[in-house]
């Protein structure tokens, strides 16, 4: 029996030129416009980075992100970690 190839569902196409994500020089990551587009398309609830957490919830989110992204060695990953001040 031939197996059907599963098509991976990915998020919307986001572009630096349309202002939906930041260039690596600017620190990588999504802009408010990019987060809004992604949230509309996927039903997610992405939040802005929390480099200087003001609440315990934000502090926990930063700690979680920094731990999760510790192995990111690519250019964009390093930029995102700098933006979060990991």
Number of E-type strands: 0
What general form does the structure show? globular
Integer-rounded radius of gyration: 15 Å
Q: Could you list the spans in which at least 5 consecutive residues all have pLDDT below 50?
A: none
Order of helices and strands, N to C?
A: HHH
Largest sheet: none
Helicity level = 25-40%
Structural class: mainly alpha
What's the mean pLDDT score?
Answer: 86
For the record, give the distance between the C-alpha atoms at the N and C termini, rounded to a whole number: 49 Å
Q: Beta-sheet strand percentage?
A: under 5%
What's the total helix number? 3
Task: Give a quick rundown of the structure.
This protein is mainly alpha-helical. The chain has three helices and no strands. The protein has a domain at 32-83.
SSE arrangement:
Layout: H1 32-42, H2 56-68, H3 75-83
Q: What do these coordinates show?
A:
The structure is a single chain. This protein has 86 residues and is mostly helical. It has a domain at 32-83. Helix content is 38%, strand content 0%. It has 3 helices and no strands. The chain has helices at residues 32-42, 56-68, 75-83. The longest helix is centred in the last third of the chain and has 13 residues, at 56-68. The termini are far apart.
